[in-house]
């Protein structure tokens, strides 16, 4: 019957064919394929220095009858390295979460166990369904000077490892970045950009736990950022932008009193308002406006129609004039 | 509660809260600086874990969000009155120990003591607006003095650490108080955002 066997990469593995004697005649298969006799020592299967490719289903059959005598699923892997653990409160003062991962894969199933101790009290960190490898805890006490000690143990069939994190309530506070950052030009102001944003939605109580913000901006063509720290409000007007240059802008948030700055928000781009270029002659302006309204529907302006046919006699002039009227009539319709 | 909800009382409360919040911010910043100096001058280890010291009001609180305005004010006031007495003792101890050799530390302690007294006053005023008035201080004896120089230094460390936490908590408490809604003395305002 079925069986799973875990072995370390590089190990030498000996598989016995169930209760069969050493000198019995047997055939071994790996994932259904016969294994060459050179790997056998009597009825034992010898795998030296196993690697990941050798994971699979191994079966042993009695020589003549082809009865299945033994079956196992070999999984080659490694014991766990020290896990990487991180804890953070992005929803202060409600609680905090811890998340973890292994620096290198083990290739076999691992279980994680997390313990959180506050002083003498053991707290329960509730595992999240999504993402896995994450759990959250509600604060039972606030403003405590007593540190939290979080220990994460990872175990698999080949070994175990652990890591510990010790921190105080304030140190792990790090909000999510501000949301809905919008940057707009200011009409008639070639050096201004109006930036506004919102508190991260994960921050539960911005009134009692106000955030302060850090704005950074630079024109795309330069590497140097300008910085502005704002102790309140969720908007700011940049007044020293270079005219006509496209800017990249980001905002970060931090609790007013404790913790660290959030990551930078998604970057937004904006260019300050610039004046429209003026037309050169008034006549050209008029033709341009009429052609602008009619160009998609009609031939170019009146003048061209008249130019085509050389004006020969009064008949041609009449045609020209009529065409002009028609164009004018259409223009009025489309303006 | 006569007059407690009058417009002028509400304005005064908001004003006291705003000033108190600013004072708490400055106090925290000064205490944090003082902590660094204190640790250095007293030859202590900054990472030393100080068990809860007798007489030092812990800032830690459960169900903080469920407290009423009056509760917040009373707990804050009790704490800052205790800190006032503790800091006064620390100042005496420091003068006995180091005397004139470390006038700077003495001045820094005195400055924080002044801020603590000012903050206690703000709290008393806010309680008067509640028509409750602050509780009397009679019968509040001075805190017990630790025996031994090292114990005094450790207590000093504990005092400053808790005071730094309290300064953060007080700013939050005052912001809760300053929130518009039912009067500070009544039940807490309805739950916040999900």
In short:
The complex is a heterodimer of chains A (335) and B (194). With 335 residues, chain A is mainly beta.
Write the layout of secondary structure elements.
The complex is a heterodimer of chains A (335) and B (194).
Chain A: E1 4-8, E2 13-15, E3 26-30, E4 33-34, E5 40-41, E6 44-47, E7 56-62, E8 68-77, E9 84-88, E10 95-101, E11 111-118, E12 121-123, E13 126-127, E14 134-138, E15 141-142, E16 148-156, E17 159-167, E18 179-186, E19 189-198, E20 211-219, E21 226-230, E22 235-238, E23 247-255, E24 268-270, H1 282-294, H2 302-308, H3 313-334
Parallel strand pairs in A: 1-8
Antiparallel strand pairs in A: 2-6, 3-4, 3-7, 5-6, 7-8, 9-10, 10-14, 11-12, 11-16, 13-14, 16-17, 18-19, 19-22, 20-21, 20-23, 23-24
Chain B: H1 7-41, E1 61-62, H2 69-97, H3 103-129, H4 149-178
The amount of helix of chain A comes to 10-25%
Biggest sheet layout of chain B = none
Q: Roughly how many Å is the radius of gyration of chain A?
A: 38 Å
Parts with pLDDT < 50 across at least 5 consecutive residues of chain A: 290-320
Number of helices of chain A: 3
Number of strands of chain B: 1
What is the makeup of the main sheet of chain A? 5 strands, mixed
- Please write the CATH class name of one domain in chain B: Mainly Alpha
What class would the helix/strand composition of chain B place it in? mainly alpha
End-to-end distance of chain A: 85 Å
Radius of gyration of chain B: 18 Å
């Amino acid at each position: 019957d079925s069986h799973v066997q875990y072995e370390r990469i590089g190990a030498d593995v000996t598989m016995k064919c169930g209760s069969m004697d050493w000198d019995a005649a047997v055939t071994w298969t790996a994932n259904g394929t016969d294994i060459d006799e050179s790997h056998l020592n009597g009825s034992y299967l010898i795998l030296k220095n196993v690697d990941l490719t050798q994971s699979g289903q191994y079966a042993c059959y009695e020589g003549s009858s082809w009865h299945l005598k033994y079956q196992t699923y070999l999984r080659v892997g490694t014991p766990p390295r020290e896990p990487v653990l991180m804890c953070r409160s992005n929803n202060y003062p409600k609680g905090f979460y811890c998340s973890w991962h292994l620096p290198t894969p083990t290739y076999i199933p691992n279980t994680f166990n997390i313990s959180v101790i506050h002083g003498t009290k053991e707290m329960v960190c509730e595992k999240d369904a999504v993402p896995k490898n994450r759990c959250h805890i509600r604060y039972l006490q606030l403003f405590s000077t007593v540190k939290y000690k979080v220990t994460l143990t990872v175990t698999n069939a080949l070994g175990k490892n652990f890591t510990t994190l010790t921190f105080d309530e304030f140190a792990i506070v790090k909000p999510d970045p501000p949301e809905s950052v919008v940057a707009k030009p200011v009409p008639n102001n070639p050096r201004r950009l109006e930036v506004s944003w919102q508190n991260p939605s994960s921050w539960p109580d911005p009134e009692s736990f106000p955030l302060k913000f850090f704005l950074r901006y630079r024109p795309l063509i330069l590497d140097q950022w300008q910085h502005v720290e704002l102790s309140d409000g969720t908007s700011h007007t940049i007044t020293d932008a270079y005219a006509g240059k496209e800017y990249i802008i980001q905002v970060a948030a931090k609790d007013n009193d404790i913790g660290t700055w959030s990551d930078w928000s998604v970057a937004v781009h904006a260019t300050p308002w610039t004046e429209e270029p003026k037309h050169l002659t008034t006549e050209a302006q008029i033709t341009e406006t009429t052609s602008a309204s009619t160009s998609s529907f009609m031939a170019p302006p009146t003048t061209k129609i008249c130019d085509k046919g050389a004006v020969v006699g009064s008949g041609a002039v009449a045609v020209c004039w009529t065409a002009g009227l028609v164009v004018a009539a259409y223009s009025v319709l489309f303006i | 509660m006569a007059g407690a909800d009058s417009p002028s009382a509400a304005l005064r409360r908001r004003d006291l809260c705003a000033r108190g919040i600013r004072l708490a911010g400055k106090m925290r910043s000064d205490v944090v600086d003082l902590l660094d100096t204190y640790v250095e001058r007293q030859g202590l280890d900054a990472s030393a874990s100080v068990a809860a010291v007798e007489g030092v009001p812990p800032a830690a609180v459960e169900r903080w969000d469920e407290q009423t305005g009056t509760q917040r004010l009373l707990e804050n006031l009790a704490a800052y009155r205790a800190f006032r007495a503790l800091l006064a003792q620390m100042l005496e101890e420091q003068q006995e120990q180091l005397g004139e050799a470390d006038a700077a530390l003495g001045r820094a302690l005195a400055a924080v003591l002044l801020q603590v007294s000012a903050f206690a006053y703000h709290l008393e005023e806010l309680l008067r607006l509640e028509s409750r008035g602050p509780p009397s201080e009679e019968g509040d004896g001075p805190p017990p003095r630790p025996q031994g120089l090292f114990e005094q230094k450790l207590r000093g460390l504990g005092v400053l650490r808790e005071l730094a936490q309290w300064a953060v908590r007080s700013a939050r408490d005052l912001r809760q108080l300053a929130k518009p809604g039912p009067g500070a003395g009544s039940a807490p305002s309805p739950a916040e955002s999900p």
